[in-house]
Write a structure and sequence with these properties.
Strand 8 (142-151), helix 6 and strand 9 (165-171) form a beta-alpha-beta unit. The chain contains 6 helices and 9 strands; from the N terminus they run H-E-E-H-H-E-H-E-E-E-E-H-E-H-E. Strands 5-6-4-3-7-8-9 form a 7-stranded mixed sheet, sandwiched between helices. Strands 1-2 form a two-stranded antiparallel sheet. It has 175 residues and is of the alpha/beta class. The relative contact order is 0.15.
Length: 175
């Protein structure tokens, strides 16, 4: 299965601030071949692994995880920003370049002892994914794999996500 994913990703210079090259993943959703390629690759990568559920990071992670979960016949857990979920939740605060954030997931959705894949659209520093892992582990889940369509390895996410398998479909350098 061959597809030029790089050509399908819009690059926006100087967004959100001068000197930043923004990789706009939304262009994948307007290109049906690109979107199908991403989901097909996810299924190919994980179909034979012991993944009991997929946890998706708000919000673009939802868009990749939902069709993937449906195709594998596994549950999808939502990892959302604090205050977006009703009921009892596990949560984790983490640092961002410009401050802090907090994410959470429903306690009732996480099954202890089950294996989870965490999905997001882009893996940069790994901070959000590490926090998502923390949330799932509070519920007794096992997290061994992370998936992102885009990876920015120069930002050292492997250090933050040490010990886990990290898979991306395409990597970009900041240079």
């Amino acid at each position: 299965m061959s597809f030029d994913l790089d050509a399908a990703i819009r690059k926006v210079p100087d967004f959100p601030k001068p000197g930043i090259l923004f990789y706009d993943i939304t262009s994948i959703f307007t290109n049906t071949q690109a979107f199908k390629f991403c989901i097909d690759k996810m299924v190919e990568i994980y179909k034979d692994k012991k993944i009991d559920a997929v946890a998706a990071v708000e919000s673009r992670g939802f868009l990749f995880a939902a069709p993937f979960a449906q195709r594998l016949g596994i549950p999808m857990i939502l990892i959302r920003k604090k205050g977006k979920l009703p009921g009892s939740t596990y949560s984790c605060k983490y640092s961002l370049e410009y401050g802090t954030a907090e994410i959470e997931a429903h306690k009732d959705d996480i099954q202890s002892g089950k294996n989870y894949l965490i999905v997001d659209d882009l893996i940069a520093t790994g901070g959000t994914l590490a926090a998502a892992k923390n949330v799932l582990e509070q519920g007794g889940a096992n997290v061994s794999d992370f998936f992102g369509v885009i990876g920015l390895p120069e930002l050292n996410y492997k250090t933050v996500l040490d010990g886990a398998t990290i898979t991306t479909l395409i990597n970009y350098s900041g240079k």
